[in-house]
Design goal:
Two copies of one chain form a homodimer. By secondary structure, chain A is an alpha/beta fold. The first copy, chain A, contains 18 helices and 13 strands. In chain A, a hairpin with a 3-residue loop joins strand 12 and strand 13. Chains A, B: Its main location: cytoplasm.
Chain lengths: 415, 415
């Protein structure tokens, strides 16, 4: 007689379990604890019940980049195995803004803004995940209902010393930078979300390890089964050094235009290329191994490998036709370092210092100042191939200066 | 023309202000900040509006002792100057017990128990304060209403580093003893009470300094006028070393019988006597100075000075007649080391080891075992002038042993 607490799997089920575990652990930095992770998969295969797989997100307007897709790819794998994806929008903190009122940058988001941002997530994540099978949850639903008494219970599950072990807190505490007491609640809230959502497995970057562990601890304290946690590597940005992020402007956004995406891919440092391939594409491992060998042996040129990567990204997020176009454009405009032949030339007779917006309108490259402003904000304006993002920029006119708006509109200035 | 923000006091009012400030600062360790304290008194004298004077208390069943009266005497002074006393019962923490569920000793108090304990406070404090003019507040009224959002705002007013400066937290953190995150809320709650109560001046022992400062900081953060704080010395207990407290059994309770109170006063260490006089009685300073000089010069015997102190305590908490009686009793029973003449003598023929309860019943000093037990628990049983408090005590009978029950019942044993 078998122990009724132990899963008894048929051979066929055992094969399924192995297949899931093997695939889901690919590219993962850490699974904690591995044994519990496998047990959960076993139980799911045995009962046919999908597992709840959580990913937490902050509620500010998202601009999803390739760095985020490392985790999204993993979620897609879970989804393909039939598991249930829980996208948690941390709107509670967004709705209260900065509780101390000290920071002006952390503005309070309205319900409407939160929903709007969530919609943007849905659109962007939809390029990787099947959003029809993805649940979107808002933690204000449960956190907003907690009273002081509940909050004390939550805070009581954690010691100050343990909290100060968290890397960023530790660093700030040791260097005398202030940590506000309310900040201790951010990991506690994130952990409590797992309690409220009955999460089985939480996925996140390695920088989330502390917070994911909090979920385990709090689920245990609240009498729930502890989640397993699965951390994925952080991808360095285009600078090759720091974590890819919007604020460091070292990212490839998945909503960027095909040409932008392709062009940025070409600036990935050689030594990071394979990491991007492995973590941010779904190209089979065997194929990547061959590519890597070719690079090592010198039979594949890094530039060609990178073009293939750029092509792949555009294909994933825009489609094959766009990928073909972007590749052709790159070859024409950048790789051959030639600019279009038919570029209009304008002799500048105005002020030598002129606002960028006025310049664009003056040159008929944009119809109105409003359009010009939006184009700059949208990243569509370049001077001498350098993107201009400051709508208040004042340009000093130089002979031979080349202005570019969008993909195809060029003007050369002479003085 | 005078600045309209500045109080313009008549000479008569100025005299009143000086009188209050001088009297209220007597015996005080620290007033923070002194300038604000005076300004508040000035404003009160000018407008005729009383100040809100707060004292916080924990909600467990109180047994008020002479140590507490140091603060109560100060409150009485405020009351005599017409100010408004706010007794704050910290029932919120009592009602939630230990939020972590780890400590069994911190039981949850029901509304009824809280009210009952508050009533006990009223009765005992009523011996010092005019309770008709004293407001009793319960912090569950406002703290129980706070939501997570409000709690985060509260927590955001304090940094972790500042919190860890608090003496007890600091010690525990440094020695590796765990501090639960929720514990940070106890001082925050105490401070928030001052916000909710519009407290002008908070009074407390020197061990409350951190918490009283919290009130100032939080009032400021919530846009209220900051309270001044006034700390009073802690009185050492009868052991002469540690703070007077019930748990250390080194206290004189103000609810104790006149004889007990008088007797305990006689055990105050000589070197602490003047401190008790100054802090716990309302005897005018000039009189105390004379007494102190007499003691120093040897013209007053310490025993006589102590008897006067014991007499004063009994007078304060029981009345003059009781003070006279207690003094007479002490002189008869203790000081002259003589025992009553009419003491019955019983020849003991029972076991040589006998339970104290059985012994009392056997000797007809108590009618039933239940009565005997209650008398022991009430501290009314002595053997050879030593109080017996263990209801399970087993007595080894000795020749000449003297048993005493209550004030007047004696039995001498022979074997």
């Amino acid at each position: 007689m078998s122990n009724k607490n132990e899963a008894v799997l048929t051979q066929e089920q055992q094969v399924k379990v192995n297949e899931q575990v093997e695939a889901l652990m690919r590219g993962v930095v850490e699974v904690v604890p591995e044994e519990a992770f496998r047990k959960k998969i076993e139980k799911s295969v045995l009962t046919g019940k999908p597992l709840n797989i959580k990913l937490g997100m902050d509620p500010s307007a998202p601009d999803v980049h390739i760095g985020h897709t490392v985790v999204l790819q993993k979620l897609r794998q879970f989804q393909e195995f039939g598991h249930h994806i829980q996208l948690l929008i941390g709107d509670f903190t967004g709705k209260i803004g900065d509780p101390t009122g000290k920071s002006e940058t952390r503005k309070v988001l309205t319900d409407e803004q939160v929903k709007l941002n969530a919609q943007t997530y849905v659109e962007q994540y939809g390029k990787v995940l099947d959003m029809d099978k993805t649940e979107i949850l808002y933690n204000s639903h449960w956190l907003g209902e907690l009273k002081f008494e509940d909050v004390l219970k939550l805070a009581g599950q954690m010691t100050v010393a343990r909290m100060l072990e968290r890397e960023d807190f530790n660093k700030r505490y040791k260097t005398g930078q202030p940590i506000s007491v309310h900040e201790f609640f951010y990991p506690l809230m994130q952990g409590y979300d797992s309690v409220a959502m009955d999460t089985d497995i939480e996925v996140g970057g390695t920088d989330q390890t502390f917070n994911l562990l909090m979920g385990r601890q709090l689920q245990d304290a609240y009498g729930k089964e502890k989640q397993a946690m699965l951390t994925l590597p952080l991808i360095e940005g285009l600078d090759g050094v720091r974590k890819m992020s919007k604020s460091l402007n070292n990212y490839i956004g998945i909503d960027e235009s095909p040409n932008e995406m392709f062009g940025k891919s070409m600036s990935i440092p050689d030594e990071l290329m394979m990491k991007y391939y492995k973590l941010a594409t779904d190209i089979p491992m065997e194929e990547l191994e061959m590519l890597e060998q070719g690079l090592a042996a010198g039979t594949v040129h890094p530039r060609d490998a990178k073009m293939k990567l750029g092509y792949k990204f555009v294909e994933m997020y825009h489609g094959v036709a766009q990928a073909d176009e972007a590749k052709a454009y790159f070859e024409t405009v950048f790789q051959k370092r030639s600019l279009p032949d038919d570029m209009p030339v304008v002799k500048w007779s105005g002020d030598s210092d002129v606002s960028l917006i006025d310049l664009l309108v003056e040159l008929n490259m944009q119809a109105t100042k409003g359009e010009a402003r939006r184009m700059i904000q949208g990243g569509g304006v370049k001077i001498n191939e350098v993107k201009q993002e400051d709508i208040k920029a004042v340009v000093t006119i130089e002979d031979g200066m080349i202005l570019q708006v969008g993909k195809r509109k060029f003007t050369k200035l002479t003085i």
